[in-house]
């Protein structure tokens, strides 16, 4: 199944009753309802002869026209664009591309060599267009965009090869509002193109998202918190950093008390396994298998995943040196053994022969480690060399 999953709540009763059918969209096709709804609303058209071509790629011109139709109720300013791209002169999509540019979905500066309307649109482009349109439509989305610049996206591209910081907010807004999601292999597929079937589902979501404020999307709020506070603790658990913040220690160094090395702290992510009233994290699939979720369900423990860079100094530095070196931090970290690191591409410390592992990274290595914190009774303080610190304790 495609990464884009139909959300039935987005389909109105009128669309559900649509009688539009296509010979190449089978009754069990995952996007059948979305396709019929998008067509009945006038967003999509068929190809004639009863065909929809659900697996065909969507071009820039087509997607610009599609989002222009979805955003039909958005008011155009008096200085609306009328000649956005020279290579659209006489092209069927010109008016709708101009409208998409005017509404802020498309930035003409991204296409200095022309729009090239027949080019299949990539998922990265699609995310940028959708997010740009939301940002242009609302001050709150603009704030959300700014707050996700330093967030972590729950996709493998975040780790290998990495995502340029200026691209992260566009993907964050698209994923946080559920306009676009990752694939089963853990990737976002930035360079992949999108089919007409997938676009049908995305259009229905866009229709819904345009009616809501950014703060109503829980996943976007989590991505925003990760961008600003470098943790999601308060959303997924009863633990809190109180008057401190993980952001206060992010990027700061901690020299090990045993002199064996040092670390730099980056971020801390909790995965909710025990508190039904708290949010299920957008990062769950990144760090927890179904077995792990069941194992810690209602355990009173919060699995917490910490990203740090370790700088070995001692010859033969091993995991024991880390543990004894930061014993005063009340949260030392353990090796992650769920094999999800292999799927997503982040680095973890192995269970055995850790000295050999660290010997390969004499200049430092960024790794993820895990702790399991008692939600009701935990108290921890992370002290850094410059005097900055962060406290984690129960909120009750």
Overview in brief:
By secondary structure, the chain is α+β, with helices and mostly antiparallel strands. It has helices spanning 13-16, 32-40, 60-70, 94-102, 123-137, 139-147, 168-176, 196-209, 218-228, 233-236, 246-249, 284-287, 290-296, 319-325, 340-344, 354-359, and strands spanning 239-240, 253-255, 261-270, 301-312, 365-374, 379-383, 389-394.
- Helicity, in percent? 25-40%
> How do the strands line up in the largest sheet?
2-3-4-5
Mean pLDDT reading: 91
Number of strands: 7
Tally of contiguous helical segments = 16
Oligomerization state: single chain
Tell me the series of helices and strands, N- to C-terminal: HHHHHHHHHHEHEEHHEHHHEEE
Low-confidence residue ranges: 1-19
The span between the termini is 43 Å
**What is the alpha-carbon Rg in Å?**
24 Å
Main beta-sheet annotation = 4 strands, antiparallel
Percentage of residues in strands? 5-15%
